[in-house]
Amino acid sequence: MKVLLIEDEQKTAASIKSWLEEARFAVDCAFDSFTGRRLAEQSEYDIILSDVIMPGINGIELCRNLREKGVKAPILLLSALSRPEDKVAGLNAGADDYLAKPFDFQELLARIHALIRRSGGPADYPVKLSFADLELNLHSLEVWRAGVKVTLTPREFALLEYLVRNQGRVVPKAEISEKVWNLDAEINTNVIGVYVGYLRNKIDKGFDKRLIHTHFGVGYVLKAE
């Protein structure tokens, strides 16, 4: 999933970008509305997230300009302006949704998934993944094991999702480092072991069958035994 994030506050942009990347989105950032407009017109995105209060043209005018240019991607406006008239102005300009700051990341993620789903999204965009008695909801980031809800952080969820997608195959630590978190393959892989430990405490502890197994010297494999 490819996201365009238009946000002039670089610390805010960095935080949102980090959250989205942990949730397995590819994110392009623009720190002003003019760069954002150029990127939106030149590339195809699954969704565009834009601040409203920015130098130059604001997010509402940017939204109107993009629709006039024929940009079809869903647009979610993010703003500290939360009055009903502000939201109406954004929606009337062509935005698909409007979320007031400060917001909860889980709500932002749920709205992103909902907008992508409504727009048709990629043909291979699944709602759920499963393995044995484990089920993952990719929209809400919720996980159940044998009907019991398990609460994971975005990074833990990303790791579990990758293991489920590669179930039955031994996944090397270096591959997890590179593919799950976009880190250099040479990074200290002890970090991976720490997160696998977190997952085991939440996914396997208290259940009869272990799902997450270590292949010593190589990596990890998801199998029911």
Structure commentary:
By secondary structure, this protein is of the alpha/beta class. The protein has 2 domains: 2-118, Response regulator (Rossmann fold, 3-Layer(aba) Sandwich); 128-222, Arc Repressor Mutant, subunit A (Orthogonal Bundle), CATH 1.10.10. Helices cover 40% and strands 22% of the residues. It has 8 helices and 12 strands. The chain has a 5-stranded parallel beta sheet, with helices on both faces. Helix 2 (33-42) packs parallel to helix 3 (59-68), helix 6 packs across helix 7 (173-181) and helix 6 packs across helix 8. It is elongated, with a radius of gyration of 20 Å. The model has no long low-confidence stretch (mean pLDDT 87).
Key descriptive features of the protein:
single chain, 225 residues, alpha/beta, Rossmann fold, Arc Repressor Mutant, subunit A, 5-stranded parallel beta sheet, 4-stranded antiparallel beta sheet, 8 helices, elongated
Concise structural overview:
By secondary structure, this protein is of the alpha/beta class. The protein is built from 8 helices and 12 strands.
Q: What percent strand? A: 15-25%
Number of distinct beta strands: 12
Number of helices: 8
- Tell me the CATH superfamily of the largest domain: Response regulator
Report low-confidence residues grouped into runs of 5 or more. Answer: none
Fraction in helix: 40-55%
CATH class of the largest domain: Alpha Beta
Q: Residue-averaged pLDDT, rounded?
A: 87
Number of domains: 2
CATH architecture of the largest domain: 3-Layer(aba) Sandwich
Query: Might you state the CATH topology name of the largest domain?
Result: Rossmann fold
* Order of secondary-structure elements: EHEHEHEHEHEEEEHEHHEE
Which structural class do you get from the secondary structure elements? alpha/beta
The coarse overall form would be: elongated
Distance between the termini: 33 Å
Largest sheet: 5 strands, parallel
Biggest sheet: strand arrangement:
2-1-3-4-5
Radius of gyration: 20 Å
